Amino acid sequence: MKIQLFNNLNDIPGIEKFIHRFPVFATQEYANYLKEIQNCDVFWFCGFVWENITFILPFAVRTKYFFKRGEFLTSSIYLNEPIDFETEREFLNSITLFIKEKKVCDWIQQPPNWAIFNSYPKNSVFAAFGTYKINLQTKNLDELFNIIDTKDRSDIRKAIKEEVEIKQGFQFLSDALMLISATAKIAGISSPSQQELTYLRDQINVFISYFRGVPQTASIFYTNKYAWFNMYAGSKDKPFRGSNSLLYWTAIKEAKENGVLFFDFVGARINPVPGSKQEKIQRFKEHFGGELIKGYLWKMPVSKFRYNLYNSLIKTVSVVTGKKFKADIIDQERNR
User: Fold this and answer.
1) Could you report the per-residue pLDDT of 274-311, keeping only the tens digit for each?
2) Would you call 42 helix, strand, or coil by DSSP?
C-alpha cells in the first residue's frame, strides 16, 4: 500500500470531508499541544488504495537523550466503509516498513489505552485489549438511562434525592485535580499537570460531584464532536454513594445533548483477574451499558539494539533508585 506522510493535518487532500470522524487525539490542536508541551514531532500517515486515501493514522516521536520513541496517537481511522481488517493490516505493515526504511524512530511503543486497533502488523508484539463505548446516536436519553445497571440507576436517584450537586466547567479544575492526584498517588500512577490541561482547556470537560459542599468524585474528559474520552478520574475516600454514578450520567447526558457520537470509558482488560482492581473498575464501566469493543494494543522494535539498550538502562535505574519497574499493558497481559 502506498504511504504518504503529512506534517500538518490541513495539508491532507480533502481532509475537510472527514474531520468529523476524528477523535480529539488526531486533531491539529492536540498535535500542537504535544509539540509545545511535550516537545514531540507529530505527523499523519495516510494509506492510499487506488489513489484514494483510505486510512489516516497520527504518530508522535519523542526524543530523549539519543533515543527516539514512536507512538501512534489513535487506532487506524477509516475513511471508507465497510471496515476491512485485512486491508488495515496491510496498511499497518506498510507503515512499519516505512518507519524502518526512513529510520523514523528506534521503536514503536505501546499506544495509549484509547487506541484500540482492529489488527496488528507482522513481527509486532501484541495483546488483546478493549474499551467500553456507548453509541450516543442510536438511543434517546430515556433509552440511555434504561441501559444503565439497575443498582446504578437506584444510586443515581438516591444521589439526586440527597441533593448531590454535579458541577461542570474549567473553573472547577483545581478541585478535580485535588481528587485525581490523590487517587493517582495511591495507585502509583502519574496524574495530569495544571499546565497541560490549561493548554487543552478548549478540548476538555471537567465534571465534579459535591455533597454538602465537599468534593466527592471528579472526571476529566477529552472531547470533541466525535467522542468524549474519560481520561482522568478520582474520588475522596468513601465518597457519598451514587455521587460518581450521577456524575457519569450527567456527563453522558451532556454529550448526547451536544450531538456527540460516542462516549468512551477508555480502556478495558479482556478477562481481568477476578477480584482485581481492574475487574472492579471495569464492572463500573460496564454498568453504564456500553459495548465492549475488542481489539489489540501492539508495539514493535525498529532498532533492536537501541530498544534493548533503553530497556536495560530503565531497569538499571529502577534498581538503583529502588523504584519498581512497571511493565506496559502489553507485557502485563502477555505474562499473566
Assistant:
1) 888 888 889 999 999 999 999 999 999 999 999 999 98
2) strand
Q: State pLDDT tens for residues 233-243.
A: 999 999 999 99
Name all domains of the chain by residue range, CATH numbers in brackets.
2-128+295-334 (3.40.630.30), 138-260 (3.40.630.30)
The pTM assigned to this predicted structure is 0.94
End-to-end CA distance of the chain, in Å? 36
Task: Kindly report, residue by residue over 138-173, the tens digit of the pLDDT.
Answer: 999 999 999 999 999 999 999 999 999 999 999 999
- Nearest of 219, 217, 192, 191 to residue 205 by alpha carbon: 219
- Please, are residues 185 and 148 in contact by the beta-carbon 8 Å criterion? no
Instruction: Give the orientation angle of helix 150-161 with respect to helix 243-257, to 10 degrees.
Output: 100
Give Cα separations from 85 to 131, 157, 166 (angstroms): 18, 43, 41
Residues 6+ apart with CB under 8 A from 159: 209, 240, 241, 242, 243, 245, 246
Let me know: does 125 contact 333? Beta carbons within 8 Å.
no
What are the φ/ψ torsions at residue 182 (nearest 5 degrees)? Answer: -65, -40
Please provide the DSSP assignment of 80-144 as one string. Answer: SSSP-HHHHHHHHHHHHHHHHHHT--SEEPPPPTT--BS---TT-EEEEEEEEEEETTS--HHHH
Q: Quickly count: other Cβ atoms within 10 Å of residue 258's Cβ.
A: 12
Task: Specify the amino acid at residue 207.
Answer: F
* Residues 253, 254, 258, 259, Cα dihedral to 10°: -30
Question: How does strand 214-223 pair with strand 227-235?
Answer: antiparallel
Q: How many other β-carbons are positioned within 10 Å of the β-carbon of residue 69? A: 17
